[in-house]
Design brief:
six-stranded mixed β-sheet, Nuclear Transport Factor 2, Chain: A, globular, alpha+beta, single chain
Length: 138
């Protein structure tokens, strides 16, 4: 794996988390291929970039601050394709009541492709480990 390619792949994954937390939906679009296959389990499955971006925008509309933290990156590069895995810990506070929250832990398994615009996620699977909520959900 070229160190530069590995860093570029990790940058895409971090950009994804940053886009959600800043509600920058154009930045989120820049993380995926047009025909991304995304499987978020019980939350849904999508086969295109606009579908997953629309879901994320709608799903985060009722939240105030969110923190999507990614760690433990592993990246394997094979030419113009890459496989990546990282852990995710997401804490989401509700806008209507910041003392109400959702705390989720899991990991992403991704397949990325090199495009003329850089690396993009082509396949994503979210594997949740646990989800807990505060006692007072709105």
């Amino acid at each position: 794996m070229g160190e530069q390619d590995g860093c570029a792949v990790v940058e895409v994954l971090v950009r994804y988390a940053t886009a959600i937390d800043t509600r920058d939906w154009d930045l989120l679009r820049s993380c995926f291929t047009d025909d991304v296959a995304a499987d978020y389990g019980a939350s849904g499955r999508w086969t295109d970039r606009e579908g997953i971006v629309a879901f994320m925008e709608g799903a985060h509309a009722g939240f105030g601050p969110t923190n999507h933290m990614l760690t433990n990156f592993t990246v394997r590069i094979d030419g113009d394709r890459a496989r990546a895995r990282c852990s995710v810990h997401a804490v989401l506070a509700f806008a209507a009541d910041p003392t109400a929250w959702i705390d989720t832990v899991g990991h992403y398994e991704d397949e990325l492709v090199r495009t003329s615009d850089g690396w993009r996620i082509a396949v994503r699977t979210f594997h949740p480990t646990r989800m807990v909520t505060s006692d007072s959900l709105p």
